[in-house]
Design a protein that fits this description.
The complex is a heterodimer of chains A (367) and B (310). Chain A is of the alpha+beta class and 367 residues long. Chain A is built from 9 helices and 21 strands. In chain A, a hairpin with a 2-residue loop joins strand 17 and strand 18. In chain A, helix 2 crosses helix 3 and helix 2 runs parallel beside helix 4. The two termini of chain A are 35 Å apart. Chain B contains 15 helices and no strands. Helix content of chain B is 73%, strand content 0%. The longest helix of chain B has 32 residues. With 310 residues, chain B is mostly helical. Chain B folds into 2 domains: 80 residues, no CATH class; 193 residues, MetI-like fold (Orthogonal Bundle). Classes of the chains: A alpha+beta (367), B mainly alpha (310). At the A-B interface, strand 6 of A face helix 10 and helix 11 of B.
Chain lengths: 367, 310
């Protein structure tokens, strides 16, 4: 078990910068998710931590120790590949015992640990069968067990759940959390699925185009995104993000949306937009669950009018698509009072709204 | 749907004759297309084989004064086969061929394997070295024979480099002649081994190799436990291919030593050549040729059947 310091790490492949000056501090025993869209550099970052890729600039330290000069096989890093990389020509037993056999661990000790791990991963009944005969779900367990059995200093998982069917994925998500507690391991988890990251990780590092967008606890990231990308990426359903130009008329500040509608800014979100005088185009963000209908609850809440285009059932609630000119807002119809085609007023609570600079994507103001 | 109709069609096929079937299925044109090849195969495979079998049971030689198809007049009830198993020159040639095979093929295998291992990772100049590596097997074997004939001369470059006197002969020495031939064969055919084994090695999933390394396996451990077992099929193919090819070695020997000194490097192919064009014992040659064909086929089958085993 160890802590990891990723310090100003950059990775270039020729002219292409895959990872751009990323710094992440991971505490001992922490579960960190690297989250981002495909091709954002999260897997490259993970490969650099594992030592599969060299670091172009910067350093990665384990408990303060730089491992870049240490051979991969001596680093003692557990790695679960996206496609598991099971040794399909060997039996399940031999797969589990591989990491111990190559370290010349005593036979009886190997046997004891293999059986314990097989029990733990509930694949004991499969021990003597060829690994190629396992189902995808069992391969997943075998891959984790094979890495865990050597008690690595850290555990890296590369999209481990993406090949699983939905039911088993939910089970495995819970199982991973339990395993992480049991092993007490520092774990780094690469995923493009924000729900996975939100539910599993102690901390999330959101990466886009090689840059670290935000690093923090899931709730902090959710409640306080530092830029437009994070706001857009985290949360399901997605945050409403509408772009427009700021215009001041007769002392009132409006965001003239590109879709033709306008938002009269008030309260905190107005203060946020005016916090930087250089900003002329902005992006207004509000989560669907923060929008409400009925009576205005607070004088600074923004009133909008929209037409209900679609009502979509999401679990016990209904998600309403509200059309305001060319712009669409998503809101939860929690009182089941809307009908398609209705022209309804709705309210954007100023305190829950977020302001972003459209050009840089930077958050304006703050919580 | 298809499962139900398929047997039905094949049933009607079984009732009708083969040619009717071919005609009716509209495969007639296809049949005419492949006919030239079929005829060619009959002439270059079936006919010579039958002719060989026929002649091997007679005393016939071109000097007999009768055409080959009348060879039944000198039918000898398989005495050629008895002569063969008691012919010391045949067994000598066979032993020398096997000797070359059991020395050269493993040497090519280990060298090829080692070279292939060096080539699985990228390094500067890999493509260039790769092309250079493959050159020997591109050269006509006779030319390779000539090259080594010149290299191994008493006053040639090899003696010169090793600081040996011109009297130190390679190709005319009872023991060293064989060594020279084996060295030439290894030089020429290691690249083929290398090529096949490299292809097999590149076929080993790289993520499994990475996983093995991350689990702490040393390069040697991973090679033995992951790469080798996964290459089993390719290894067997490479060994069978080379063993069969090596058994037929002719050009190198013919040009470098012509089987000499004496019969010290006479392999089966060279022996057959000498019997054919020197002694004109064509029936005897047919006997040996057929026997070797059967023996080699069995050897290859044995090797390939290893592949089917899990």
């Amino acid at each position: 078990m160890s802590s990891i310091q990723i310090q100003n790490v950059t990775k270039r492949f020729g002219d292409f910068t895959a990872v751009d000056d990323i710094s992440i501090d991971i505490e001992e025993g922490e579960f960190v998710a690297l989250l981002g869209p495909s091709g954002c550099g999260k897997t490259t970052t993970m490969n650099m931590i594992a030592g599969l890729e060299d670091v172009t600039e910067g350093a990665i330290r384990f408990d303060g120790q730089d491992l870049s000069r240490i051979r991969i096989q001596d680093r003692n890093i557990g790695f679960v590949f996206q496609n598991y990389a099971i040794f399909t020509h060997l039996s399940v037993y031999k797969n589990l015992s591989y990491g111990l056999e190559v370290k010349k661990v005593d036979r009886s000790e190997i046997d004891r640990r293999v059986r314990a791990m097989a029990d733990r991963m509930s694949i004991a009944h499969r021990l003597d069968q060829p690994a190629s005969s396992l189902s995808v779900n069992e391969m997943q367990k075998l891959a984790i067990g094979r890495s865990a059995i050597v008690e690595p200093r850290i555990f890296l998982l590369d999209e481990p759940l993406s090949n699983l069917d939905a039911g088993f994925r939910a089970y495995m998500r819970a199982e991973l959390k339990v395993l992480q507690h049991e092993f007490g391991q520092t774990m780094i988890y690469v995923t493009h699925d924000q729900i996975e990251a939100m539910s599993l990780a102690d901390k999330i590092a959101i990466i886009d185009q090689g840059k670290l967008m935000q690093y923090g606890a899931p709730l902090d990231i959710y409640n306080d995104p530092q830029n437009r990308f994070v706001a857009n990426f985290v949360g399901s359903p997605r945050m409403n993000l509408v772009d427009g130009e700021l215009r001041e008329e007769r002392g009132e500040l409006h965001l003239m949306l590109h879709g033709g509608a306008e938002i009269p800014l008030a309260g905190k979100v107005r203060a946020d937009f005016t916090s930087d005088a250089r900003v002329h185009s902005g992006s207004f963000g509000i989560r669907p669950q923060d929008i409400y209908f009925g009576d205005q609850r607070c004088p600074t809440d923004i009133t909008m009018h929209g037409k209900v285009e679609v009502l979509e059932r999401v679990g016990p609630k209904r998600l309403a698509y509200l059309q305001v000119q060319e712009t669409m807002f998503l809101a939860f119809d929690d009182q089941a009072q809307l009908e398609v085609g209705d022209d309804v007023p709705f309210f954007l609570p100023s305190d829950a709204s977020m302001a972003f600079d459209l050009d840089s994507g930077r958050r304006l103001g703050g919580r | 749907m298809t499962d139900q109709t398929a047997p039905e069609i094949s049933n009607t096929h079984a009732k009708a004759g083969y040619w009717t079937r071919v005609a009716r299925d509209g495969q007639k044109m296809g049949f005419w297309f492949v006919l030239p090849t079929l005829l060619l195969l009959v002439f270059i495979v079936v006919f010579p084989l039958l002719m060989q079998l026929y002649l091997s049971f007679t005393w016939w030689t071109p000097l007999e004064g009768i055409p080959w198809y009348q060879a039944w007049e000198v039918f000898n009830w398989g005495e050629n086969y008895w002569y063969m198993v008691t012919d010391p020159r045949f067994w000598g040639a066979l032993w020398r061929t096997v000797l070359i095979m059991i020395v050269a093929v493993p040497a090519q295998f280990f060298l090829g394997m080692a070279l292939a291992y060096l080539f699985i990772d990228q390094f500067p100049g890999r493509k260039l070295f790769y092309s250079i590596m493959l050159t020997p097997m591109m050269i006509v074997p006779a030319v390779v024979g000539l090259m080594f004939f010149l290299l191994f001369q008493g006053t040639g470059p090899i003696n010169d480099h090793l600081g040996l006197p011109p009297e130190f002969s390679w190709l005319t020495d009872v023991n060293r002649a064989m060594i020279s031939v084996i060295i030439a064969d290894i030089w020429q055919w290691t690249p083929l081994m290398f090529l096949i084994l490299l292809a097999g090695m590149l076929g080993v999933p790289s993520d499994q190799l990475l996983a093995a390394r991350l689990l702490g396996g040393s390069n040697w451990q991973n090679f033995v436990k992951i790469i080798l077992p996964r290459m089993k099929t390719v290894i067997i193919i490479a060994l069978v291919l080379r063993a069969v090819e090596c058994f037929k070695i002719f050009d190198l020997v013919f040009i470098m030593t012509n089987g000499g000194p004496g019969v010290q490097t006479e392999t089966i192919s060279v022996f057959l050549y000498n019997q054919t064009f020197g002694e004109l014992e064509w029936a005897y040659v047919a006997t040996m040729g057929l026997s070797i064909l059967i023996a080699l086929s069995m050897l290859a089958m044995k090797g390939l059947s290893l592949m089917a085993k899990k």
